[in-house]
């Protein structure tokens, strides 16, 4: 079982910045990423960080958001700059055990372009509101 606790959401004006944090209460290494969802809309994968440190982003946040993690603190971050009203959503971090293939590769469930059905653990969410 993994407990994920997000923080850092809030209300900002367009062009502002926020940094979201997700504390993962676990001693194991997991696949992790950020999703967001607005009421009545489908959940969207926003940012992914892989076990080798590579990152991926959905097109609408490229160049504005940065995902990072501090393994020593078991904390995942999402730095959000140049925020736009359309970034207003509930933001969730998600975690899933690393998938080991018979060939010894380490895989993670997809994030970008998905709703995150492959992820086993979810935080409670933190609200981000961007006003114009």
Secondary structure topology:
Blueprint lengths: L2 E5 L2 E4 L4 E8 L4 E8 L6 E6 L5 E3 L7 E6 L4 E6 L8 E9 L1 E2 L5 E2 L13 E2 L3 E6 L1
Parallel strand pairs: 2-13
Antiparallel strand pairs: 1-3, 3-8, 4-5, 4-9, 5-6, 7-8, 9-12, 9-13, 10-11
Q: Mean pLDDT, as a whole number?
A: 93
Number of DSSP helical runs: 0
What are the segments in which pLDDT stays under 50 over at least 5 consecutive residues? none
Main sheet specs: 7 strands, mixed
What is the count of β-strands?
A: 13
Radius of gyration based on Cα positions: 14 Å
Put the structure in a nutshell.
This protein has strands at residues 3-7, 10-13, 18-25, 30-37, 44-49, 55-57, 65-70, 75-80, 89-97, 99-100, 106-107, 121-122, 126-131. The chain is mostly beta strands and 132 residues long.
Describe the structure.
- The chain contains no helices and 13 strands.
- The chain has 132 residues and is mainly beta.
- It is globular.
- The strands form three sheets. Strands 2, 4, 5, 6, 9, 12 and 13 form a seven-stranded mixed β-sheet that branches. The protein has a four-stranded antiparallel β-sheet with strand order 1-3-8-7, with no helix packed on it.
Characteristics:
132 residues, mainly beta
